[in-house]
Design a protein that fits this description.
41% helix; alpha+beta; 85 residues
Length: 85
């Protein structure tokens, strides 16, 4: 089984038979990680996301300021989809 996610500038693949995680850039550069390194990479990404999320919460409480997120042209806005349901 192969799971693929294609983005504008990169493609992510998980190949179950080879137990390999592949990141391919638009220009052809490729990184292949075995299951151990893929798991370590995912832990790293989750830690970064949690750290950024928790830092925003503590900054918001300490400064009593509102954090306004900037919208980027490549960013998907899920709030519109959520309110339509």
């Amino acid at each position: 089984m192969k799971i693929t996610k294609k983005l504008k500038y990169a493609e992510f693949d998980w190949n179950e038979s080879e137990k390999a995680f592949t990141i391919t850039e638009q220009d052809g550069n490729r990184v292949i990680l075995n299951k151990v390194y893929a798991f370590a990479f995912m832990r790293f990404v989750i830690r970064m996301a949690q750290k950024n999320w928790l830092n925003q919460k503590t900054t918001e409480k300490n400064n009593n300021t509102v954090i306004v997120e900037e919208e980027h042209s490549g960013q998907i806005n899920f709030e519109d989809d959520f309110h339509q349901v």
